[in-house]
UniProtKB/TrEMBL annotation:
Keywords: Signal. InterPro entries: SsuA/THI5 (IPR015168). The keyword Nucleotide-binding does not apply. It comes from Amycolatopsis pretoriensis. This is NitT/TauT family transport system substrate-binding protein.
C-alpha cells in the first residue's frame, strides 16, 4: 500500500507539472503562440494606416490568402502615422509597420530605432498626388504659394518634402510657405472651409476633392525633381528580422504577390472598393501610382538625399544598411 501511495503521488506531481507548463504534453498554448513548419512566429502584428491607397498591396495579400499560404496570420493594428509606429516597433508592440519612407529614414538616421525594409508600398506617379485649391481661389500655380498656407499631414514627411521640391522647381521659395498640419481625415473639410489656402492630397482624396468640391490642381507632387518618388513601405525591427528570418521572408513574399496583382488597374479599383469602402465612381476615376514588388535601394537613396537638401537630415545618410534583400 505504501508503494502504491508513492506511485499515485508521483503521477499526480507529473500531471501538475505538465499543467503548469502550459499543457505542453497536450499541444496547448505554447505551440499556438509560436511558429509552425513555415515560420518562427505565425501571428504577427502589423501597423497599418487604414483606407490609404498605399496599403492596397497589403489588403490584396490578405483577401487573396497570400499571408495564410505563407503560414502567417496578420493582425492589423491601426496607427495614425509612421512616427507613431516607430516606438511601437522598438518595444515589440508591432512586428511590422507600414508608413512613409521619409519618417522611417529620419528615425533610422537619428538612431531612434534600427529598422530593416521588408516590402515596398507605393511609388508616386503623375496624376495621383497634388497640391489643390478651391475653384474660386486666386492661387493657380506653385509660384503663387509664398505667403500662403499649405495643409500637410506632418511637418516632417514625404508630403511636405515633395511639396517643397515642386515649389522650388517652380521658382518660388518654399521657406515663405506656411505648412500647417491637417489630419488626412479632415483634409477636405479644411480646404472647403478655408482653414488653409491649399491642401496636399493623394488618391483617393484627390479625386474626391475634384468631384465633390471642384478643387483645382495647383501643382502635381510627382513631377520634376520628385517624379517616381518612393512614398511608402513596410519595415520591421532589425532584431526581429534577425531572430525571425523565415517570418520576415514569408511576409515579404506575400506582399510581393499582393503588390504584383495591382499591376492590373481593375484589381486596384476592386481592392480599393473592398477595404476603403469608397464610391465606385471615385474608385474608377482615381489615378493610381506604382506598386513595386521589392524595395529598390537606389530609389530609396533619392529620398534620403532630398531630405538632406531640405534639412530633414543633418548629414548624408546611406540607406544601404536598412535594405533587406528580397527573399
Amino acid at each position: 500500500m505504501r508503494a502504491f501511495r508513492r506511485w499515485v503521488t508521483a503521477t499526480v506531481t507529473v500531471v501538475a507539472v505538465a499543467a503548469l507548463g502550459g499543457c505542453g504534453l497536450l499541444g496547448g498554448s505554447d505551440d499556438d503562440a509560436g511558429g509552425n513548419d513555415k515560420v518562427e512566429k505565425a501571428t504577427v502584428k502589423v501597423g497599418i494606416i487604414p483606407q490609404l491607397i498605399d496599403i492596397a498591396g497589403f489588403e490584396r495579400a490578405r483577401s487573396a490568402g497570400y499571408f495564410t499560404a505563407e503560414g502567417l496570420q496578420v493582425e492589423p493594428v491601426t496607427i495614425k502615422s509612421a512616427t507613431e509606429a516607430v516606438p511601437k516597433l522598438k518595444t515589440g508592440e508591432l512586428d511590422f509597420a507600414f508608413g512613409n519612407w521619409t519618417s522611417f529614414l529620419a528615425a533610422q538616421a537619428e538612431g531612434a530605432v534600427d529598422l530593416r525594409t521588408v516590402a515596398d508600398g507605393l511609388q508616386a506617379k503623375e496624376g495621383m498626388t497634388a497640391l489643390v485649391a478651391m475653384p474660386q481661389s486666386p492661387i493657380n500655380s506653385a509660384k503663387d504659394l509664398p505667403g500662403k498656407s499649405v495643409g500637410v499631414n506632418a511637418l516632417v514627411g514625404n508630403v511636405t518634402l515633395t511639396s517643397k521640391a515642386v515649389i522650388k522647381a517652380a521658382g518660388a521659395d518654399p521657406g515663405r510657405v506656411q505648412f500647417k498640419v491637417i489630419p488626412t481625415a479632415n483634409a477636405l473639410t479644411a480646404l472647403q472651409t478655408g482653414q488653409i489656402d491649399v491642401m496636399s492630397l493623394q488618391e483617393p482624396n484627390l479625386t474626391m476633392a475634384k468631384q465633390k468640391l471642384g478643387a483645382k490642381v495647383v501643382a502635381d507632387r510627382a513631377t520634376g525633381p520628385v517624379a517616381n518618388f518612393p512614398i511608402s513601405g513596410y519595415v520591421a525591427p532589425a532584431a526581429f528580422v534577425k531572430d525571425n528570418p523565415k517570418t520576415a521572408d514569408a511576409f515579404a513574399r506575400a506582399m510581393a504577390k499582393g503588390q504584383g496583382d495591382l499591376a492590373d488597374g481593375q484589381t486596384v479599383r476592386k481592392t480599393l472598393q473592398d477595404y476603403a469602402k469608397i464610391d465606385p465612381g471615385v474608385a474608377n476615376a482615381v489615378g493610381t501610382g506604382v506598386f513595386p514588388t521589392a524595395v529598390d535601394r537606389a530609389r530609396l537613396q533619392t529620398v534620403a538625399d532630398l531630405m538632406l537638401t531640405y534639412g530633414d537630415l543633418k548629414q548624408k545618410f546611406d540607406v544601404g544598411p536598412m535594405i533587406r534583400p528580397a527573399p
